[in-house]
């Protein structure tokens, strides 16, 4: 999460070391060489739980954190566009769900990427229901399946 002032770099480095429960950059390098955790699911969980700190650092100007967030936004854009390509309509509504994607940096970057799509017109909308229910209803709407408005 380097980038910004020297003080901020030191603070960000300490946050990473503390989170990964290592006391030096050498230990961090060794942990990285070992793949951080042998179990893929646990490794993904480890990094997923650290995501809010990365998005916060991106918002504060960290160039490394911004690159990480930009890459994640690109992957989300690709997933959204793959799903969106199955809808006949040109206009596709997208609801962003979760604390990381709803952070100002990530939501702004993803919205920017989606708006650049030359084929579909993606529009980010506010969620009005629990995430799972909202996603199902939006999919039904896009597929033309009627729902009870209760």
From TrEMBL:
ATPase BadF/BadG/BcrA/BcrD type domain residues:
15-139
Q: Which InterPro entries match?
A: ATPase_BadF, ATPase_NBD
Q: Which domain of life is it from?
A: Bacteria
**What's this protein's name?**
ATPase BadF/BadG/BcrA/BcrD type domain-containing protein
* Organism this protein belongs to: Paenibacillus selenitireducens
